[in-house]
């Protein structure tokens, strides 16, 4: 399938952006809305009911990466700005090299008047602009003199964008599974999980396994006419042996492997080599309908913006028709977008298809 930019474009009203965590609206994390999409249709419920839409023997795979305070205050010859760190690619005794996004502020992106070799101050450290990332000029390789981790602890804040008008503490951007710091932005698909949800999954006979993928700045908007050519920077990942074993065993028993977030899809598919194997390193895998999906049978995620590269991955996992129908339903029914928004469970292979709950039935 030849995917073009128009395939990733849809109308989403601005008021459907989640502007604050659900807790600020008096809604527990696990009580956000859940849209369940299968070949049989689209059904609304509550995230706390997640286990009811899965089958015994299914396997959920989650990302254990924790969020960094990766947004640093910065100063250049033209004044103040913000430098959002994405991924560290090199570390020496007294220097580190990161990929980063310079922005005027959390609400206002670039471009900024920057050039190769410019020296700025970010997080109190001297930082040199080395080179823009090929094909993604909004991102720069930046060489820091000093300890970036210490600078983040002193002066860093969680990355946020203009639709979230107020700053929230770093704990707001962590999931239940976050125990391996490294992500510039929260792997937010797992944010609604609670201990209550895990108990319900265990009682249902649904397994949970873990990978690590340290994500950079949020899904980059596709700008090329041929969306399959979209570049993605490499991101570090690990699929441990116990997770590879769990995936193989689930597949052999006829169960479904359901990724919790697009980061998990990229990690699992990057570890596929004709079979599921442990793997670690960097991945720049960009999944789209022209590239086969071998491991993942379903996806639990949030709702992604028009033109976001993540939409191409959703099409690869579930087919464009199912995803476009789900997004039309989400807009009609007022689901909320972004990291503090609602959840979307996509099951292109619905199996025996458990009974669907109505939204009014509330949490289990």
From TrEMBL:
UniProt biased composition (Basic and acidic residues): 9-26
GO MF, one example: S-adenosylmethionine:tRNA ribosyltransferase-isomerase activity
GO biological process terms, semicolon-separated: tRNA queuosine(34) biosynthetic process
Region (Disordered): 1-26
Keyword terms of this UniProt record: Cytoplasm, Queuosine biosynthesis, S-adenosyl-L-methionine, Transferase
One Pfam match: Queuosine_synth
InterPro entries: QueA, QueA_dom1, QueA_sf
Domain of life: Bacteria
The keyword Membrane appears for this protein: no
Name of the protein in its database record: Queuosine biosynthesis protein
Organism listed in the record: Truepera radiovictrix (strain DSM 17093 / CIP 108686 / LMG 22925 / RQ-24)
């Amino acid at each position: 399938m030849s995917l073009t930019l128009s395939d990733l474009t849809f109308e989403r009203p601005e008021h459907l952006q989640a502007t604050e965590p659900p807790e600020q609206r008096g809604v527990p994390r696990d009580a956000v809305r859940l849209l369940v999409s299968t070949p049989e249709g689209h059904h609304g419920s509550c995230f706390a009911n997640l286990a009811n839409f899965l089958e015994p023997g299914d396997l959920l795979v989650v990302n254990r990466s924790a969020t960094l305070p990766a947004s640093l205050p910065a100063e250049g010859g033209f004044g103040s700005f913000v430098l959002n760190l994405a991924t560290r690619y090199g570390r020496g005794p007294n220097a580190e090299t990161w990929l980063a996004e310079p922005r005027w502020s959390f609400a206002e992106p670039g471009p900024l008047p920057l050039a190769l070799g410019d020296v700025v101050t970010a997080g109190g450290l001297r930082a040199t602009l080395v080179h823009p990332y090929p094909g993604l000029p909004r991102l720069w390789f930046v060489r820091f003199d000093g300890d970036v981790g210490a600078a983040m602890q002193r002066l860093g804040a969680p990355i946020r964008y203009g639709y979230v008008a107020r700053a929230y503490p770093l704990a707001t951007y962590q999931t239940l599974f976050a125990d391996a710091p490294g992500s510039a932005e929260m792997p937010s698909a797992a944010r609604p999980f609670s201990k209550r949800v895990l108990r319900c999954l265990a009682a249902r006979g649904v397994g949970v396994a873990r990978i690590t993928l340290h994500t950079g700045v949020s899904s980059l908007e596709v700008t090329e006419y041929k969306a399959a050519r979209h570049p993605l920077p490499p991101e570090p990942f690990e699929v441990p042996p116990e997770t590879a074993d769990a995936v193989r065993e689930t597949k052999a028993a006829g169960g479904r492997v359901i990724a919790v977030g697009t980061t998990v899809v990229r990690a699992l598919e990057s570890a596929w080599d004709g079979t599921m194997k442990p793997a670690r390193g960097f991945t720049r895998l960009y999944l789209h309908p022209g590239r086969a999906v071998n491991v993942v049978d379903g996806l639990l995620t949030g709702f992604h913006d028009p033109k976001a590269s993540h939409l191409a991955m959703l099409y690869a996992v579930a087919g464009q028709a199912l995803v476009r129908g789900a997004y039309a339903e989400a807009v009609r029914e007022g689901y909320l977008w972004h990291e503090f928004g609602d959840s979307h469970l996509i099951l292109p292979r619905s199996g025996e298809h458990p009974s669907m709950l109505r939204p009014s039935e509330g949490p289990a």
